[in-house]
């Protein structure tokens, strides 16, 4: 420590004053003794001060390293919670992908008559979101996304929601113009609720559970698409209609042995592990959608989020018509390379491909492709496969 120099320096200064003094050596000795005592005390204070500063520094350092310890909530624990499980797969992933029954992307028929009766059942189910990756979902009787609902513009849509889950849920239809506090109310477990709305707005719309925390209910699988088709003649004729629901998954574990659960830290950071079309990573790579050369293929793309957009793009061609934000009563954009579909929104895209081949459709925000948001359109029944 610096005790010695501090004590000796004032002593030297004092000694410079001594020659002019005639006082008794005893008095000088007493004075010097007092001075030494005072200086010693000051040195002690400085030492204590230095020790406190060192302890503060040590405390800061140790609290930083403690942050990485289990149960220590702080920045470092947050970093650990964001560990990515993207791409985790078992050794038989390829066989599992081949055995997976893909979510039906073909737009189902709309019911005839003035009323479309829709019965939705919410259920806690374990779903597969990628080959061998299991997830404890709050979803629908058939998994996630929920069933594609197809109605005609002007039909009265009668929604009946049955909650077979363990906690309250609800269902919010973006295609509806209704008072949400009346229609989108929570349904207790074991209960059902019904409401109606007139499907006056054509397009592709999201439906989802709107119970708090909505982020968690959507991320857990409680979403789906409703297509409201305008009368014949409003849209050009399409030979094929496919519905794609984009979404993200935020995992608490890799989901290979035990089903993963929802990770709120990742959802808040918007760092998904998997991103999918129709709930399962790359399912249309293994089981491509099909078209014949020269056909007009219509993609009804809805992005359920919960938080990320989808930048819809088909590799090897250009979208002939794009109704962004599903505004199918507006004039479409022509010849678009990539069309953004916002979280909670939809887009309708026509493409006509003349040359046979395998055409990947992706979200061109390319992290999404690595995380599973990719499929293939096989034009002309060609052989082989590719990913992009
Ligand atoms: Cu819910």
Write up what this structure looks like.
It is globular, with a radius of gyration of 34 Å. The protein contains nine helices and 19 strands. It is 24% helix and 32% strand. The longest helix has 42 residues, at 25-66. Strand 1 and strand 2 (133-140) form a beta hairpin. The strands form four sheets. Strands 10-9-12-17-14-15 form a six-stranded mixed sheet. A five-stranded mixed sheet has the order 11-19-18-13-16. A four-stranded mixed sheet has the order 2-1-4-6, with no helix packed on it. It has one domain (93-379): Immunoglobulin-like (Sandwich). It is of the alpha+beta class.
Total count of strands:
19
- The secondary-structure class comes to alpha+beta
How many discrete domains? 1
Shape: globular
What is the C-level CATH assignment? Mainly Beta
Question: What are the bound molecules?
Answer: copper (II) ion
What is the CATH fold-level name?
A: Immunoglobulin-like
| Portion of residues within helices | 10-25%
Tell me, rounded to a whole number, the average pLDDT.
86
Unreliable stretches (pLDDT < 50, length at least 5) are 1-21, 42-76
- Sequence of strands across the biggest β-sheet: 10-9-12-17-14-15
CATH architecture: Sandwich
Number of helices: 9
Radius of gyration computed on alpha carbons: 34 Å
Largest sheet: 6 strands, mixed
Q: Ends: how far apart?
A: 66 Å
Order of helices and strands: HHHHEEEEEHEEHEEHEHEEEEEEEEHE
Which homologous superfamily in CATH is the superfamily?
Cupredoxins -  blue copper proteins
Strand content: 25-35%
């Amino acid at each position: 420590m610096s005790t010695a120099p501090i004590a000796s320096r004032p002593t030297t200064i004092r000694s410079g004053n001594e020659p002019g003094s005639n006082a008794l050596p005893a008095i000088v000795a007493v004075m010097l003794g007092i001075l030494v005592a005072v200086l010693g005390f000051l040195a002690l204070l400085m030492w204590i001060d230095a020790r406190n500063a060192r302890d503060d520094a040590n405390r800061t350092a140790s609290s930083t390293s403690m942050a990485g310890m289990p149960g220590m909530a702080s920045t470092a624990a947050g970093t650990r919670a964001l560990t990515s499980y993207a791409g985790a797969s078992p050794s038989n992933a390829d066989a599992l992908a081949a055995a997976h029954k893909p979510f039906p992307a073909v737009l189902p028929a709309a019911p005839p008559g003035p009323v479309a009766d829709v019965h939705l059942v919410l259920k806690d189910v374990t779903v597969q979101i990628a080959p061998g990756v299991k997830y404890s979902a709050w979803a629908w009787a058939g998994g996630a996304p929920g069933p594609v609902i197809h109605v005609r513009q002007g039909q009265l849509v009668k929604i009946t929601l049955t909650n077979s889950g363990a906690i309250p849920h609800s269902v919010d239809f973006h295609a509806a113009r209704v008072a949400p506090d009346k229609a989108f109310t929570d349904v207790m477990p074991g209960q059902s609720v019904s409401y109606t709305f007139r499907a006056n707005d054509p397009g592709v719309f999201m439906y989802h559970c709107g119970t708090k925390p909505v982020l968690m209910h959507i991320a857990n699988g409680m979403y789906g698409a409703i297509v409201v088709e305008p009368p014949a003649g409003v849209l050009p004729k399409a030979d094929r209609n496919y519905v794609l629901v984009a979404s993200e998954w935020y995992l608490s574990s890799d989901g290979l042995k035990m089903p993963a659960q929802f990770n709120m830290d990742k959802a808040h950071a918007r760092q998904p592990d998997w991103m999918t079309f129709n709930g399962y990573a790359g399912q249309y790579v293994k089981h491509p959608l099909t078209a014949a050369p020269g056909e007009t293929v219509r993609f009804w793309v809805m992005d359920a989020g919960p938080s990320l957009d989808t930048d819809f793009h088909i590799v090897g061609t250009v979208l002939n018509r794009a109704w962004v934000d599903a505004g199918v009563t507006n004039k479409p954009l022509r010849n678009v390379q990539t069309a953004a579909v916002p979280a909670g929104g939809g887009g309708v895209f026509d493409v006509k491909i003349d040359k046979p081949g395998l055409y990947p459709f992706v979200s061109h925000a390319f992290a999404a492709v690595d995380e599973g948001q990719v499929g293939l359109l096989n034009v002309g029944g060609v052989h082989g496969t590719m990913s992009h």
